[in-house]
Amino acid sequence: MSHAASSPLQDLARSHGVATEYWDWRGKHVRVSDETIRTVLDAMGVESGSQEQVEQALAASKDDAWRRVLPRVVVLREGWTPWVAVHVPHGSAITGVIHLESGEERKLAQADHVVDPRKIDGVQTGEATLELPGDLPLGYHTLVVTFGEQEASTSVIVTPERLELPAALQTARAWGLTTQLYSVRSDRSWGLGDAADLAELGTWAARQGADFVLVNPVHAAEPVPTMEPSPYLPTSRRFVNPMYIRVEEVPEVGYLSAAEHQMIEWHGDDARRLNALADLDRDGTWEAKQAALRMVFRQERTHRRRRDFEEFCEREGQGLVDYATWCALVIDRGLPWETWPEELRDPRGEAVAQERERLAEEVEFHCWLQWVVQSQLADAQRELKAAGMSLGVVHDLAVGVHPGGADAWALGDVLALGVSVGAPPDDYNQRGQDWSQPPWRPDRLAETGYAPYRDMLRTMIRLSGGLRVDHILGLFRLWWVPKGRPATEGTYVRYDHEALVGILALEAHRAGALVIGEDLGTVEDWVRDYLSDRGLLGTSILWFERKNDIEPKPPEAYRELCLASVTTHDLPPTAGYLDGEHIRVRNQLGLLTRPLEEEVAEDEAQRDAVLAELRRRNLLAGDASVEDEVAALYRYLTWTPAKLIGVAVPDLVGDVRTINQPGTDEEYPNWRLPLAGPDGETVSLEGIMTSRRAKRLIRTVTQRLPED
């Protein structure tokens, strides 16, 4: 993009990866306001309020690398031999050693590269150059440089050139279910779908030939009412919501007294009544489960169970302690935590240590809940694999966290304040979106060697055969929106995608998992090619795959390396979409920026073009029902080369209602709708497994197709 006459403020912004202009979804050039740029820079710790501050910050940014002995972090691909600049007092002799993850040490050679010294903050500073060898193993290593009596260190992260597909997918394609787990309730559920329901749904699907079940993010939510309904706005992305525990399957339940068993049954009976409600009641479910789980927690554990719990706590380390401490403090003091005494807002402070001691049993309870829920989800994954699935559970990773949550409290030093993550306007969200999540600060994330990011990925990948990364474009750039301003007044901030994607590939490689990137929305042309080159799958939604504004893309033109599906959770199920539900809802909620007639005409033209293509390919008869149309759309997808095909569970039962309407909060019952049939009546997990409609749709996807 060519820049107009550049100001010092714009130069400063660009030096920190902040966009000063961009092209919007309609191809219009937009210049970012100075006010937005200053707010975003301030959130990154860069003062730019006055012209003098801008000039000082700009000068400082030019010498930033020279003020550091070593870079914040070094990320490279396997086989690369990068040079690492070392900045020390001019004339200093240096030695460089790399400490490998395995414990082995490797001495580094100094490259013959002469750079003129500079005076930095009054010190004549020279630059030496170390060359990293090309045979470093994958993993997390430490580079240590010694000069005189001083030393400095930095992380060296070696990532795979490409994430290879699991063996089963290298020569074959696969299909699976996509679902909002909490909405799929069995007769035994306590008001919401849980880990046992996931295992039940998955083992049934495996018998139908499915190879995976993709679920919504199962990240942790608040431990007190009101629980945030959106799984994409969690309190922590590293830890899991204990709401997904199946109480009766915790081993210690078997050792309870008869009276305690009776109490558990009473709590269960109360919670199962929630299955009949029109809307999901997370708070009611958690109230019942928490009461029952506290009884189980107090039960004596066997030696082997104690050892397993202790090993879990040791593996999770300080991150688990911080999360559990936050939960204990929330139960003791309430939310928001920003109203707590100042000394309790620092997780490393002495006051928090004292409170942790005072609330030790409550802290242990929340550590225990994590052990139990992660164990049950890991069990579900093992059961799905044992049932024959090549992948099993595919978990979903949300873009960010709640600003008042555990991660914002514990990881506040790596998050940007005064801004939130969102998305610029696009075809389906014409006013833009503000997701109210604090973004990572790129500089602080690098300074930690990406440790919080690595820890988060490990938890989710450990429980699954694959990971879907929501808005994977956020690993390249994120739309930062200044607090109190509309989403249209944001701007892009660039991240080190080589590091973020590389670490994601490394963690997935070590776990033998695949990665699906949700790459919908406003995408730079080169990003999808980059992700494909690194072995990450993309996402193709049939309604969005068009060769022009109206005509559908032919199935043969789809990407191979992708998860293809007809719909997604931000659109109605397919039967609803065919009936224009997405237009009706957005019109009722005032989310359209064009006249209703224009929206309806364009939408009908697009849907009619798709149905006409189905008829042209003899996939649909002239007198077809809605159920026939849904089946034909899925059959159309089987003609694509896509490695994965996702079948939405709501489509198995003919549901029509959107699970989430972007751009709304309380105006629409987002994330609160249970699975239902075309008539709006709730459908249980048992109902799915005996549904004629479900079996017909699955046959459509699994049957061998005749030659075109």
| Outline | globular
Task: State mean pLDDT (0 to 100 scale).
Answer: 95
Assess the beta-strand content as a share of residues.
15-25%
Helical content, roughly? 25-40%
Provide the CATH architecture of the domain at 75-159.
Answer: Sandwich
Task: Write structural notes for this entry.
With 708 residues, the chain is an alpha/beta fold. It is 37% helix and 18% strand. Among the domains are: 8-62, no CATH class; 75-159, Sandwich (Immunoglobulin-like), CATH 2.60.40. The chain is globular. The longest helix has 31 residues, at 303-333. The chain contains 22 helices and 25 strands. Belongs to the disproportionating enzyme family. Its EC number is 2.4.1.25.
